[in-house]
From TrEMBL:
<dbReference type="InterPro" id="IPR036366">
    <property type="entry name" value="PGBDSf"/>
</dbReference>
<dbReference type="InterPro" id="IPR050570">
    <property type="entry name" value="Cell_wall_metabolism_enzyme"/>
</dbReference>
<dbReference type="InterPro" id="IPR016047">
    <property type="entry name" value="M23ase_b-sheet_dom"/>
</dbReference>
<feature type="domain" description="M23ase beta-sheet core">
    <location>
        <begin position="116"/>
        <end position="202"/>
    </location>
</feature>
<protein>
    <submittedName>
        <fullName>Peptidoglycan DD-metalloendopeptidase family protein</fullName>
    </submittedName>
</protein>
<dbReference type="Pfam" id="PF01551">
    <property type="entry name" value="Peptidase_M23"/>
</dbReference>
<dbReference type="InterPro" id="IPR036365">
    <property type="entry name" value="PGBD-like_sf"/>
</dbReference>
<dbReference type="InterPro" id="IPR011055">
    <property type="entry name" value="Dup_hybrid_motif"/>
</dbReference>
């Protein structure tokens, strides 16, 4: 029976069985020596994973050593493990798989023009994958979000627009169709921020209007 690796378990600093399975595969694929930290996703594992991504032909931000679904499935196919991706389950638990909200919606804060926090923040390392929370299409994907930095707007099939801000990399283009769970970019710190995080907004009435948001639900 083949082993199961959960994509959302694979993040810098994590310690779990999924990491161990991936380390065993990386030992065979690129010679990773993980005796100093079996089951722990540290810098040595990240560098080995980046080698695997380069081996697959990825470059730049797509070869940063942080697993995405495509590179992980390729590794699993070659070295005998299965990948559990939230997309396959049809339900996405978080726009940043494996991460929870670190700064809530609606908190009063004079730093924002609206006077309150218009979305939910997910603090995580630069390069952490972000995913579509619902099926839909990409309404915009560009670097001209101003304070929002490099951003993506997802028009979901439920009529809402979900907004992903401060990205370090965008993997989708305007007009593209997208499925729940599909990788659409990476966490970064573009725009007006103090550190890397995803700022995630829910615009229930459709088109983006500043501060016309509610607590994100999907
Ligand atoms: Zn925020």
């Amino acid at each position: 029976m083949s082993k199961l690796v959960k994509l959302s378990d694979l993040r810098l600093g994590a310690h779990n069985d999924s990491v161990l399975v991936v380390q065993e595969a990386l030992a065979k694929a690129v010679g990773l020596d993980f005796r100093s930290g079996p089951g722990t996703f540290g810098e040595r594992t990240r560098q080995a994973y980046a080698k695997w991504q380069h081996h697959l032909g990825f470059s730049g931000p797509q070869a940063d050593g942080l697993p995405g679904p495509d590179s992980l499935r390729a590794l699993g196919t070659k070295f005998g493990f299965k990948v559990q991706d939230e997309a396959a389950a049809g339900k996405v638990a978080s726009p940043v798989p494996g991460h929870t909200v670190t700064y809530r919606y609606g908190i009063q804060n004079a730093r924002y023009a609206a006077g309150f926090h218009t979305g939910e923040d997910y603090a995580s390392a630069k390069g952490t994958p972000v995913v579509a929370v619902r099926d839909g299409s990409i309404q915009w994907s560009n670097d001209t979000g101003g304070a929002y930095g490099s951003w993506v707007g997802l028009r979901a099939e439920n009529g809402r627009v979900y907004v992903y801000c401060h990205l370090s990399w965008r993997g989708v283009v305007t007009g593209q169709g997208i499925k729940a769970g599909q990788h659409l970019g990476k966490v970064g710190s573009t725009g007006n921020v103090t550190g890397p995080h995803l700022h995630f907004e829910d615009h229930p009435a459709g088109p983006f209007v500043y501060a016309r948001t509610r607590k994100p639900m999907w």
